[in-house]
Amino acid sequence: MASLLSHVLNGLSFGSLLFLVASGLTLTFGLMRALNLAHGAFFLLGGYVALDLLGRTDSYWLAMLGAVVVVGLLGVAFERFLVHRVLHRELAQVVLTIGAAFVIADQILAYWGGRPVMPPRPPGLGGSVTIGDLTFPWFRLSLIVIALVVFVSLWLLINRTRVGAMIRASVDDEEMARSVGIRVPVLFMAVFGAGSALAAFAGVWGGAFTGLEPGGEFSILLLALVVTVVGGLGSVTGAFVAGLGVGLVDEFGKSLFPSFALFTIYAPVALLLAIRPRGLLGRVER
Amino acid sequence: MLDLRDVDVYYGSSHVLHRTTLHVAEGETYALLGRNGMGKTTLVHTVMGFLRPRGGVITLAGERISGLASERIARRGVALVPQGRRVFPSLTVGETLEVSYRDGGREGWTLTEVCDRFPILGDRWGQTAGLLSGGQQQMLAIARALVTNSAVVLLDEPTEGLDPSRVTAVADVVAELARRGTTTLLVEQKVRFAVDLADRIGVLSRGEVVHSVAGGSMRKDPAPLYAELGFT
Question: Which of A49, B70, B98, B207 could staple B18 via S-S, CB 3.0–4.6 A?
C-alpha cells in the first residue's frame, strides 16, 4: 500500500512539474499559436540564472525572483523583436525558436560550464513528511501544491478577468479584437513574457527535482509539448489534467516496465491523439 | 469626416480597389451599394486597417489613418460591424461588450442601453457567443461596435440573413446613429434598405465609386440605382 501511495505521489509530483513547464507553453503555443521551441531553454536558463544570483545574493527567494524577471523580460524582447515577425508562420517559428534554444544553451555552456548542477531546494522544504508507512519529501509535495496554485491562478486570469477575456478575444479573431481597440501585439508580448517567466519559475523550483545541464532543454521541452498537446491547445485545465496523467503514466511505466519507460509515455499519448486529435479539452479548430 | 483619396488595394496580384475616392461627411449616413465581388468589403477592411492600400490616402477628421494598425484606427474612432458577424465564440455576451466598451460621454452608448435596444443580449448575458443563433450573433456584432462609441461606424451588410423583425431593429439602430451624429458607412446589397436610411448613396463597381446621389432623390424611384447595379 505504501509502495502504491509512493508511486502515486511521485507520479503526481513529477506531473506537477510537467504542468509547471507546460503552463507557460499553454499560454504561448496553446493560446497564441506561437510555437516556442526555446521554452525548454528558458526553463534551463531560469535555473542557471537563479543559481548564479543565489551565489551573489545568498537569498533563494531573491534569486528566484531575479531569474523569473530576467527570463520574463528576455521572453518579452524575444517576442517583440523576433517571434512577432513570424506569427502565423509555423515553419519560420520552428526554425527561429529552435535556433534560439541552441543559442541560449550554448551561452549557458559558455558561462556556467557543461557539468550537471542540482539547484538547492527552497528553504524550509528540506525535510520529509510521514504518511502511514511512507516517508515522502516535503519538496515533492510542494510541487503538487505549487502546480495547483498556478493552475487556479491561470484559470482565473484567463476565464474571470478582463485581461483574460481580451486574450481569448484576440485568439478567437485577432482582426476583430483589434477592431474594437484591443492592443493585440502588446497583449501577446505580455503573454509571451508571462509564459517565459513561468518556464523560468519551473526551472528554479523544478530544477531541484530534475537537475540542470545544457542539453536538458529538449527533453523537458518534449514532455511539455506532450502535456500541452494532450491537454488540448489553449486549455489550462487540459494541461493540468494531462500533466498529472503523464506524470502518473511515466511513474508507473518506469516501475512496471522499466525497459520500456519511453514507450509507456509516448504510446498512450499517440493512441489518445489518434482517437482524439484535439486532445483532452482542446477546442475544435474553426 | 472619412475620406478616401485615390486608394489602390490589391489582394496579391489582383487589383481590387482602383484609385477609389469617397467622402463621408460628419454625421452623414452614406450607403455604398454594389454587387458581389465589386470591392465593398475590401473597402471597409481597408478603412479598418485589415488591408493596407498600396496607393492613396485615407483620413479621419483630416488625420491620416491609412497605414496605421487596426487597433490604433479603432482608438481614433472607427468601429466595424463585419460581414458574417465574426463574434468572439469563446467569450460570453457580457465579456464581448465589456472588452469592447469605451466611454462615450453623455451621448455615448452604455452597456445598459444596448441591452435595452437588443433585449436578447441582456437575457443571454452569460452565454457564450459561439452558441447564439445567427440573428442573435448579428445583434451582438452590432452592439459590440456601438459600445466602442466611435465617431465612425462601418456596417458591412448588417441585414444579411436576418428575418424581417431583426432587419427593422437594424434600421432603427442606423437611424439612431444618425440622430446621435455618428458618421455611418453602410455597405449593402439591399437597395430599398439603403435608400430608406441613407443621406447619400454611392455605387461601387469594379473597385470604383461610379455613381453618387442624394438618398432622398432615390426614395420615390430607386430605378436608376437598380439599373446602375445591373438589377432588372
Answer: B207
Measured CA to CA in angstroms, residue A95 lies from A28, A83, A188, A217, B4 at distances of 16, 11, 20, 16, 41
- Domain parsing of chain B, residue ranges: 2-229
Q: How many CA atoms lie within 13 A of B119 on its CB side?
A: 0
B211–A contact, CB cutoff 8 A:
no
Instruction: Choose, out of A157, A176, A182, the residue to mutate when testing the contact with B (most B CBs < 10 Å).
Output: A176
CA distance A219 to A40: 8
| pLDDT tens, position by position, B7-58 | 999 988 888 888 999 999 999 999 999 888 788 899 999 999 999 999 999 9
Report yes or no: A88 at the B interface, CB cutoff 8 Å.
no
ipTM of this complex prediction, to 2 decimal places: 0.90
CA dihedral sign, ordered B176, B179, B184, B186: positive
CATH, domain A2-275, list 3.40.109, 3.30.70, 2.50.20, 1.10.3470: 1.10.3470
CA A191 to chain centre: 14
Contact A169 B50 (CB under 8 A): no
Mean pLDDT of A28-37: 82
Domain with residues B2-229, CATH architecture: 3-Layer(aba) Sandwich (3.40)
In whole angstroms, what is the distance from residue A248 CA to residue A237 CA?
A: 17
Q: Which of B49, B69, B144 sits opposite A180 (nearest CB)?
A: B144
pLDDT band at B156 (very low <50, low <70, confident <90, very high): very high
DSSP-based three-state secondary structure for B13: coil
Q: What pLDDT does A286 receive?
A: 43
Q: Could you state, in order of their start, the residue ranges of all structural domains in chain A?
A: 2-275
**DSSP-assigned beta bridge partners for residue B187:** B32, B156
Measuring CA to CA, which residue among A188, A224, A267, A250 is closest to residue A20?
A224
Distance CA A104, CA A106 (A): 5
